[in-house]
Amino acid sequence: MSTALPMNSSAETSKSARSLGVTGRRTVGPVLLLALLLAVPWLPTFWVNLLNNIGLAAMATLGLVLLTGVAGMTSFGQAAFIGLGAYTCAWLTVGTDVPGWLAPIAGSPWLALPAGLLVTLAVAAGLGAVTLRLSGHYLPLGTICWALALFYLFGTLESLGAHSGLTNLPALQIGAWSLDQPADMAWPIWLLLGLALVLSRHLLDSRSGRALRALNGGQAMAESMGVPVFRTKMAAFILSALLAGVSGWLYACNQRFVSPAPFSVTAGIDVMFMALIGGVGHLWGAVAGAVVVTLGRNGLQDWLPSLLGQSGNYESVVFGLLIIALMHRAPNGLWGAIHRRWSRRVDPRRAQPAALPAAAPLPRRVQPTRGQPVLEVRGLTRRFGGLVANKDIDLTLHAGEILAVIGPNGAGKSTLFNQLSCVDHPTSGEVKFLGQSVLGWQPRRMAAAGLSRTFQHVKLLPSMSVLDNVAIGAHLRGRAGLLRSALRLDRAEEARLLGEAQRQLERVGLGALSHVEAGSLALGQQRLVEIARALCADPSVLLLDEPAAGLRLQEKQALAELLRKLRAEGIAVLLVEHDMDFVMNLVDRVAVMVFGEKITEGLPAEVQSHPKVLEAYLGVDL
Ligand SMILES: Nc1ncnc2c1ncn2[C@@H]1O[C@H](COP(=O)(O)OP(=O)(O)OP(=O)(O)O)[C@@H](O)[C@H]1O
Q1: Cα 381 from Cα 415, distance rounded (Å)
Q2: What's the 411 CA to ligand 1 centre distance in angstroms?
Q3: Where in this chain does the record put each ABC transporter domain (predicted)?
Q4: Which end of the chain is more exposed for a tag (fewer CB within 10 A), N or C?
Q5: How far apart are CA 512 and CA 452, in angstroms?
Q6: The whole model's pTM is what?
Q7: Are 407 and 593 in contact (CB under 8 A)?
Q8: What's the pLDDT tens digit per position in 330-342?
Q9: DSSP annotation string for 271-309
Q10: Mean pLDDT throughout 352-361?
Q11: Are 304 and 294 in contact (CB under 8 A)?
Q12: Whole-angstrom Cα distance, residue 500 to residue 602?
């Protein structure tokens, strides 16, 4: 299994990374796991119990890594989902009020697993529907609310044994083998954890994984690339809850006793600590965090009383201080520190990106005929309170032309772009795309219709590879979902998507840098990566917000050449740009905006000598 990182897919997840020696490291995980399991019969029971606790905690923490580190959502309710898995198992196997219709599955801990997952899925879907629309601090606060609610529910429902819980759960059986000892339970715990790590790794190296990671790049970017943001958030939330549910089921089978205390909000905070300490951006961070927190707490409980006396509970205080110190020293967690140390030894820019598997090109969309109006803007007005950012704007963009929108800072150009890509909606007026009104459309629908864009402030995922960043643009050209991706049934499609991403990178002149982290590129190169990402969607219309900003002269010339080629292919390009040389030598027409209004529109030469334009730019009153 790879030690690869979900957030840092660059050097490790791209195939190119193999040249950096990842293949060898991929075998370390399974070999260690097997050695551990084979050693279990010789370990004292105390250590086997610790090992099992680490495995159980790592499983739930893995869910939080996917939710928080990968998808960017914070939850303190993970322990409540562990509780759901555990209590479902306990209630179905020893509950006294299990209804008759559940009789066929009652009493079997094996059948309690799918049942527990169903319950977890249903509860997570319900809670996700009400909390995932919250943003900022409200989301974690929301998770605390329902975590508290579930905790008190576990402790008050008589059928769940209230505060005393449910006891004497049957042991798992495999044929004649009863898994009634901790040493027996180490097998299902660690094998399931290994499986979860492998499936998560597969998932992250896929179209669905890129969609999950795109959530971290902001809602506007993800939606504009065709990622259904809310659905993807829900998927991450449910996936994370299901991993906690499996952990809860294993916990119940291991302890054979379930009570509310281990599923409190405090326990949820502990899971968050494990993720942060291990490295919330790394799958193996879940295991590292579980090891450190479990062993650390245990060690402190043993050593502190002999050092500081029995009178106070200093363990939590010292543990808290150690965590703060660790966060100062290793803000990306232990696994993050290990990864950084390793990647310093290898310069990915010197490594050759490995060849991608040969794959047929993706089908192209039918492009509108040259000269056909693709975007028609009529009377577009956007007010922000008393400020009129766009006022009564008319504009038409045709297939196969490059139109520039220029204007001083604050003229309303980005506001116009946001409305054209449906990231924002006009106060009044109309936008038509290929003759169809886009009123009320979401950016995703606009992307599907054939409009792709870049952003004034680059929106890349800096720790992800350039290739993966670009492949996000091809999201709507693939179909594979979470399950197919996790089971690696998406490889043919994935090869085509990555092939397309590589082609677009070569088109913008960055083919040789596909495997490096996007954040390591210069700003100008990052803008080119955004253009490649937009091209990956096979657009009919390309909106480029300041594409030449930060580019060197040669890069600008290459970009101008690329845009001319796109124009020749019949693509319509609308760009906002401050570099007048770049604009005037490239575009067919120029629209000039000042204080939210379009003051003129015409050929570059006409616009350059227009008195109103001179006045706006030079402050000359003519
Ligand atoms: N969400 C918003 N809420 C309130 N005011 C906004 C919002 N977005 C933009 N504005 C205001 O609208 C005006 C136009 O902003 P916009 O960013 O569209 O200008 P611009 O021409 O793109 O400027 P620049 O070239 O500096 O990027 C500015 O005064 C800006 O402060």
Answers
A1: 10
A2: 7
A3: 375-620
A4: C
A5: 24
A6: 0.89
A7: yes
A8: 888 888 888 777 7
A9: HHHHHHHH-TT-HHHHHHHHHHHHHHHHHHHHHHHHHH-
A10: 73
A11: no
A12: 36
494 plus 536 within the same structural domain: yes
Start-to-end CA span in the chain (Å):
71
pLDDT bin (cut points 50, 70, 90) of residue 18 is very low
Amino acid at 568: A
The CB of 152 under 6 Å from ligand 1? The reply is no
Residue whose CA lies nearest to ligand 1 atom number 11: 389
pLDDT digits (tens, 9 = 90+) for 298-347: 888 878 777 777 666 777 788 888 888 888 888 888 888 887 777 666 55
Query: For residue 412, is it within any domain?
Result: yes
3-state secondary structure 484-540: HHHCCCCHHHHHHHHHHHHHHHHHCCCHHHCCCEHHHCCHHHHHHHHHHHHHCCCCC
**Backbone φ and ψ of 459, nearest 5°:** -120, 75
Are residues 294 and 438 both part of a single domain?
no
In a domain, residue 367? The reply is no
User: What is the rounded distance in angstroms from the CA atom of residue 378 to the CA atom of residue 430?
Assistant: 5
Q: Which residue from 380, 382, 387, 543 has its CB within 8 A of the most atoms of ligand 1, so it is best to mutate?
A: 387
Predicted confidence band at 17 (pLDDT cuts at 50, 70, 90)? very low
How many angstroms separate the alpha carbon of residue 323 from the centre of ligand 1? 42
Q: What is the domain count for the chain?
A: 2
Task: Give, using CA atoms, the residue closest to atom 10 of ligand 1.
Answer: 389
Per the structure, the complete domain to which residue 418 belongs is given by: 373-618
Phi, psi of 175 (to 5 degrees): 60, -125
The 10 Å Cβ neighbour count of residue 427 is 14
Measured in Å, residue 364 CA sits from the centre of ligand 1 at 35
Distance in angstroms (rounded) separating the CA atoms of residues 190 and 33:
7
Q: Are residues 277 and 170 in the same domain?
A: yes
At 6, list the tokens.
């979900």
pLDDT by residue (tens digit) across 538-578? Answer: 999 999 999 998 888 988 998 999 999 999 989 999 999 98
Q: Encoding tokens for residue 63?
A: 């869910």
Q: Which two tokens stand for residue 551?
A: 């580019």
Buried-state track 152-163, b at ≥16 Cβ within 10 A, e below 16: eebbeeeebbee
Question: Token pair 């968050």 is at which residue?
Answer: 272
- ipTM of the shown complex: 0.96
Q: What six digits make up the tokens of 240?
A: 């994370």
Cα→Cα distances 612→333, 414, 446, 615, 617, Å: 57, 21, 34, 5, 9
Planar angle of CA 441, 447, 449, nearest 5 degrees: 80
Q: What is the DSSP string of 556-588?
A: HHHHHHHHHHHHHTT-EEEEE-S-HHHHHTT-S
Q: Is 46 exposed, middle or buried (0-12, 13-18, 19+ CB in 10 A)?
A: exposed
Give the single-character DSSP code of 1.
-
pLDDT interval class at 349 (50, 70, 90): low
